[in-house]
């Protein structure tokens, strides 16, 4: 009810503006522009409503002192100092970048908030209820989201979206002009320093009704007419500011223009530039909790979720006693437990496989979303809300296929192959067959599946992003070439139909079809897995495109929170927090639910440290989310739509436990190439010295944390690097160094 209320008051908020007698001004220029240009704007507000927006002129209310620097490679640094010439209330300034010859076909991206302008069908649905029952089994269903900021999909309609820097992972706007083959990225600062706080900048895009012109605006301060909420909008608390004569408001922008043939090229350049925040040096990583200690803490939490009853034993993935498959941990939280290699955890994993694989299977071979401790299926989320029988989230089954096969492979590698039961293999094989059958019939896996028939129930998303990875592994395990063939077909379709367009969706069962980070990392994993299994290097640039898309979802800089928020008091650096979706507007500690090892593999293959840097940020952000009691939740955010400045102290969330343990398992603490001496540190330690010795290298590590660190070192030479890493390789990383808190230790690397 709370979520519905928030959307309902949208109209009330608009009515308030009307009642005040204020007239809405436009950010667009009064006259059509012949060519692209820049306007410096004097703004006035009535409450949250822009009422005047005039170009700054001589004799007006502001004097502007510009500073423009050409930094080469298409990058221009622009600094505009607006000096107030009089006392003013409810005012602000802005820099508008006007685009002539505009088209609504152009791709517009604001990191973690807007993908392709969010030009999609909008409906109003309560949280975790899915689509209306009339939307099921419709191949012609338009991409559908709950109310979010968007550029209008309707030609001739007014079109404007307004966000603050707290609503995005990077304070930036990116656009691909398809007609001219050019890309432009505008990166600005967080906002205006005002005493002990920073007032966020506004990020605004407005189009003319005929879509012939658009303006990209950075406003200081940011003032939104309506405030985006978890679902829908609420009355905006934003207001103009009061200035005195002589006060200065500074707007800095890095404008990057370059030849750009497609969306992947735009996102690739964004990834390279995302940390170039004007006036903000990239933060030095905070070393808080070593990966070995994270593993201990997260596994203790996972073990706390082990349901131990007389006849029923299994790892629960959520804060309840049921078994759910895939997505947020079911038959995934067993992976780090299995990786520990001890008898007790092996016993628990076997019990979980016994329970999970012996219940919940539908006639098609797919599994239902959720099974109770009594072994009976029960509906949740979309299936429960509309009482639609036999509905299951595609992504859950895709996750399940990948992770179960990966664990069977691990059992064999550990010498536990005799523990693998034939009935497990037969059910997992039927699951792989189900994906093959659906693909052959529909040429897609969609958003939701009919678990009884295998038919696609909701079309037009990339919800099956993990399916190619699962099928590829299954092709090796079961020696079935058909699985690999369908994996390749599916990956191609997902890349061509979604990734090329800079948009993936359908991974989250609690929202509609909004863009999400989870399908982006899922498809990345599929492409890297296919590259390793097939030896086909054409998958690598595709994987790089998905890594760039993942970077748009990941916080790139140390956002300054209001000092009274819990995370601000902790001095938290939220660089590396991963936003969930354009609806679920919060940062979280890590990918849901993966280690991100595909990024490590991509770094290892290409040598591009951007991928390693992104992964390191994510690993370190996860530690920021761990509470003093060792628990962790999915909240690690600065967005004012959801739990601003909170890490959810006092609560716990299963998938964050699982991904933390996965990262500690699948990512080495330090990676080094022994031919070149080039290394990268992922763990919460520092390398203070590295010197060449006769037998290899001698490395000195310093542990700045309060915890003992056992650091895994993965060393290899160039010829080894040229070979695929594969899965479960961590079992071979036997070189480990223990470093006491606040101490140094030396190790020799061969």
What is the number of strand segments? 36
Q: Major beta sheet, specifics?
A: 7 strands, antiparallel
Uncertain runs with pLDDT below 50, 5 residues or more? 1-20
Distance between the termini: 61 Å
CATH class membership of the largest domain: Mainly Alpha
Give the number of helices. Answer: 17
Mean pLDDT: 95
The coarse silhouette is globular
Helical fraction: 25-40%
The number of domains is 3
The fraction of residues in strands falls at 15-25%
CATH topology of the largest domain: Glycosyltransferase
Q: What is the radius of gyration?
A: 26 Å
Which helices and strands appear, and what pairs or packs with what?
Layout: H1 2-19, E1 37-46, E2 49-55, E3 62-72, E4 75-84, E5 88-100, E6 107-110, E7 114-115, E8 121-122, E9 144-145, E10 159-164, E11 172-177, E12 182-188, E13 191-194, E14 197-200, E15 202-207, E16 213-220, E17 226-228, E18 233-235, E19 241-243, E20 248-259, H2 263-273, H3 291-304, E21 306-308, E22 313-315, E23 323-324, H4 334-339, H5 343-358, E24 370-371, H6 381-385, E25 391-393, H7 394-413, H8 422-442, E26 448-450, E27 456-458, H9 467-477, H10 481-497, H11 517-534, H12 539-552, H13 566-569, E28 578-579, E29 587-588, H14 597-606, H15 609-624, H16 654-666, E30 670-673, E31 679-681, E32 686-693, E33 696-702, E34 709-716, H17 718-721, E35 736-739, E36 744-749
Parallel strand pairs: 8-9, 30-34
Antiparallel strand pairs: 1-2, 1-5, 3-4, 4-20, 5-16, 5-19, 6-7, 6-11, 10-15, 11-12, 12-20, 13-14, 15-16, 17-18, 21-22, 23-24, 25-26, 26-27, 28-29, 30-31, 32-33, 33-36, 34-35
């Amino acid at each position: 009810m709370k979520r519905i209320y928030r959307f309902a008051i949208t109209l009330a908020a608009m009515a308030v503006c009307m009642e005040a007698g204020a007239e809405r001004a436009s950010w667009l220029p009064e006259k059509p522009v012949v060519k692209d240009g820049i306007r410096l704007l004097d703004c006035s507000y009535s409450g949250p409503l822009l009422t005047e927006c005039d170009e700054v002129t001589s004799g007006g209310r502001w004097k502007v002192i510009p500073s423009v620097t050409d930094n080469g490679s298409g990058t221009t640094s622009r600094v505009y100092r607006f000096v107030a010439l009089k006392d003013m209330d409810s005012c602000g300034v802005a820099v508008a970048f006007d685009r002539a010859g505009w088209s609504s076909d152009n791709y517009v991206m604001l990191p973690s908030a807007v993908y392709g302008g969010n030009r999609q069908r909008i409906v109003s649905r309560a949280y975790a209820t899915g689509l209306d029952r009339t939307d099921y089994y419709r191949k012609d269903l338009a991409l559908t989201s709950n109310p979010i900021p968007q550029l209008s999909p309707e030609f001739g309609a007014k079109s404007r979206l307004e966000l603050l820097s707290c609503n995005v992972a990077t304070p930036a706007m990116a656009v691909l002009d398809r007609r001219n083959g050019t890309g432009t990225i505008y990166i600005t600062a967080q906002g205006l320093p005002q005493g002990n706080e920073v007032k966020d900048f506004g990020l605004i895009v407005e189009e003319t009704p005929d879509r012939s012109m658009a303006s990209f605006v950075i406003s200081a301060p940011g003032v939104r007419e309506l405030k985006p909420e978890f679902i829908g909008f609420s009355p905006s608390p934003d207001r103009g500011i009061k200035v005195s004569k002589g006060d200065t408001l500074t707007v800095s922008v890095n404008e990057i223009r370059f030849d750009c043939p497609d969306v992947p090229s735009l996102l690739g350049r964004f990834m390279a530039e995302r940390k170039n925040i004007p006036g903000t040096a990239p933060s030095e990583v905070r070393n808080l909790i070593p990966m070995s200690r994270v593993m201990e803490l997260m596994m203790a939490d996972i073990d706390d979720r082990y349901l131990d009853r007389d006849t029923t034993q299994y790892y629960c993935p959520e804060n309840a006693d049921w078994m759910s498959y895939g997505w947020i941990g079911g038959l995934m939280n067993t992976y780090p437990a299995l990786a520990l290699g001890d008898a007790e955890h092996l016993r628990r994993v076997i019990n979980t496989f016994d329970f999970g694989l012996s219940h919940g299977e539908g006639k098609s071979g797919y599994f239902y979303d959720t099974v109770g401790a009594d072994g009976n299926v029960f509906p949740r989320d979309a299936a429960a809300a509309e009482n639609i029988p036999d509905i299951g989230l595609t992504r859950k089954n895709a996750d399940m296929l990948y992770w179960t096969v990966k664990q069977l492979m691990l059992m064999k590698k550990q010498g536990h192959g005799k523990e693998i039961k034939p009935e497990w293999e037969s059910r997992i094989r039927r699951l792989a067959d189900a994906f093959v059958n659906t693909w052959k019939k529909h040429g897609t896996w969609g958003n939701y599946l009919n678990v009884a028939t295998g038919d696609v129930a909701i079309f037009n998303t990339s919800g099956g992003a993990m399916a190619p990875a699962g099928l590829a592994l299954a092709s090796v395990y079961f020696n079935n070439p058909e699985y690999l063939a369908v994996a390749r077909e599916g990956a191609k379709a997902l890349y061509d139909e979604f990734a090329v367009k800079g948009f993936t969706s359908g991974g989250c069962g609690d929202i509609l079809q909004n863009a999400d980070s989870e399908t982006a990392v899922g498809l990345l994993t599929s492409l890297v897995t296919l590259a390793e299994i097939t030896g086909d290097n054409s998958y690598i640039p595709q994987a790089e495109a998905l890594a760039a898309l993942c970077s748009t979802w990941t916080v790139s800089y140390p956002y300054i929170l209001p000092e009274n928020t819990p995370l601000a008091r902790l001095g938290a650096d939220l660089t590396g927090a991963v936003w969930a979706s354009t609806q679920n507007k919060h940062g979280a500690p890590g990918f849901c639910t993966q280690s991100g090892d595909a990024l490590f593999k991509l770094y290892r293959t290409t040598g591009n440290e951007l991928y390693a840097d992104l992964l390191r940020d994510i690993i370190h952000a996860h530690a920021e989310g761990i509470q003093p009691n060792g628990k962790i939740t999915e909240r690690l955010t600065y967005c004012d739509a959801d739990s601003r400045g909170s890490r959810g102290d006092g609560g716990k969330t299963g998938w964050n436990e699982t991904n933390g343990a996965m990262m500690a398992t699948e990512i080495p603490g330090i990676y080094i190439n022994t031919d070149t001496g080039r290394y990268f540190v992922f763990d919460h330690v520092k390398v203070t010295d590295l010197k060449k010795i006769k037998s290899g290298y001698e490395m000195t590590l310093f542990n700045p944390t309060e915890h003992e660190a056992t650091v895994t070192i993965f060393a290899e030479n160039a010829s080894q690097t040229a070979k695929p890493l594969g899965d479960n390789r961590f079992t071979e990383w036997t070189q480990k160094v223990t470093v006491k808190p606040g101490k140094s230790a030396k190790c020799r690397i061969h």
